[in-house]
């Protein structure tokens, strides 16, 4: 017998309560006793008073016992159902990783994949949800590939933060998005004490910008017999295609596109560092807490800095000039759980930026909008079939919106030679 759901148990419990009340209202124990006495009198032509009293007493006693047994049975059934209902815990919504959704999708389509033949229509393996695509969530047990030189410094390519993980996101069903671009302004709110003059006027220069969705795609061709090993297929697609997709996504966010409807990337939109500091740490901090705050009239506050992995390691392995000992600037550069932080700004590493440069920004000045979540499809054409191979393709569509260029500052880590 299938187990009842919580709603079914509650419904059954309510029906039992109504049934008991209805039965009690329709026929009480006294009524049943009266019926029993009347039946006894009809069976006998003559009956004494003592016999009548005894018959009535027995009928009432039996009716009460029957009613009690019936009520006890119903009460036990009701108690068991209520107890079961109280033990049903609401299903907790757990956010799954991209890998978990991908593994489920492949497993659900296992028979279709293994039975894929030449001439078949294309097989689409659609994910039920996007899931958390961060590498930290998809590869929690990944091990470092680079030796740890300083305590707390672990450069792990499978456990990192990607730009799309930290930039606020959204979704759209169009082929492009329109968003307001901030281009400075005039005036500011101020103190008004002279009633003979107008109050301070503020003008914001806003323009409408369009950002078209771009494809991020790639494919892999594998041997047909490898489809027989679904476990191998899962691990391969999860490890290789996901890393490759996220790397391409990083490059798109940094560099944008240069096609007919270009999307401006972070590096092209960022303003140049204009401070006077020469030390790399000082320049990164001044770009965020000095230049961004000043140029945006304190509207934006820096949150992150992008560095090349080599540059991040170089800053983390800072040495004193005299003793040669590792000497991080106290309170300025620190590691927490293997993450580099400079002046309170979280560092995101990527090979998409030069080892000599940095990019400091406020994540709230950007939005990464998705049109099509990463989708995996399987194909087999005539050329592939001749060599007993099949193709898997991963692709998605997204675009980037940058609301204020002054909220992004880039420049060389070292001051240029005079």
UniProtKB/TrEMBL annotation:
Family annotation (Gene3D superfamilies): hypothetical protein PF0899 domain, Major capsid protein gp5
Main localization, broad class: virion
Cell location: Virion
A family per Pfam: Phage_capsid
Domain of life: Bacteria
Segments passing through the bilayer: none
InterPro entries linked: Phage_capsid, Phage_capsid-like_C
UniProt-recorded name of the protein: HK97 family phage major capsid protein
């Amino acid at each position: 017998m299938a187990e009842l759901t919580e709603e079914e148990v509650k419904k059954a419990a309510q029906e039992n309560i109504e049934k008991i009340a209805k039965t009690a209202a329709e026929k009480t124990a006294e009524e049943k006793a009266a019926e029993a006495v009347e039946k006894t009198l009809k069976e006998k032509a003559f009956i004494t008073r003592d016999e009548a009293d005894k018959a009535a007493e027995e009928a009432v006693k039996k009716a009460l016992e029957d009613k009690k047994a019936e009520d006890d049975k119903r009460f036990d059934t009701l108690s068991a159902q209520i107890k079961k209902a109280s033990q049903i815990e609401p299903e907790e919504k757990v956010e799954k990783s991209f890998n978990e959704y991908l593994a489920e999708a492949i497993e659900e389509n296992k028979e279709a994949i293994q039975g894929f033949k030449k001439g078949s229509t294309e097989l689409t393996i659609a994910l039920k949800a996007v899931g958390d695509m961060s590498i930290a969530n998809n590869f929690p047990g990944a091990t470092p590939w680079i030796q740890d030189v300083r305590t707390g410094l672990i450069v792990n390519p499978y456990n990192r933060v990607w730009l799309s993980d930290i930039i606020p996101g959204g979704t759209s069903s169009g082929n492009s998005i329109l968003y307001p671009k901030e281009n400075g302004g005039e005036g500011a709110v101020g103190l008004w004490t002279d009633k003979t003059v107008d109050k301070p006027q503020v003008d914001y220069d806003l323009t409408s910008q369009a950002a078209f969705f771009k494809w991020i795609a790639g494919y892999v061709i594998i041997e047909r017999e490898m489809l027989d090993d679904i476990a191998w297929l899962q691990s391969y697609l999860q490890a290789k295609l996901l890393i490759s997709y996220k790397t391409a996504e990083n490059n798109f966010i940094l560099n944008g596109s240069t096609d007919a409807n270009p999307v401006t990337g972070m590096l092209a939109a960022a303003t140049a560092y204009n401070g006077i500091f020469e030390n790399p740490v000082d320049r990164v901090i001044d770009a965020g807490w000095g230049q961004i705050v000043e140029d945006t009239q304190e509207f934006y506050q820096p949150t992150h800095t992008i560095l090349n992995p080599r540059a991040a390691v170089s800053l983390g392995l800072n040495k004193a000039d005299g003793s040669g000992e590792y000497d991080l600037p106290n309170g300025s550069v620190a590691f927490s759980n293997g993450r580099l932080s400079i002046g309170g700004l979280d560092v995101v590493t990527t090979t998409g930026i030069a080892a000599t440069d940095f990019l400091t920004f406020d994540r709230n000045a950007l939005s990464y909008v998705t049109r099509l979540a990463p989708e995996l499809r399987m194909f087999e054409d005539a050329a592939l079939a001749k060599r007993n191979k099949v193709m898997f393709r991963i692709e998605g569509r997204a675009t980037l919106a940058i609301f204020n260029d002054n909220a992004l500052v880039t420049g060389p880590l070292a001051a240029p030679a005079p």
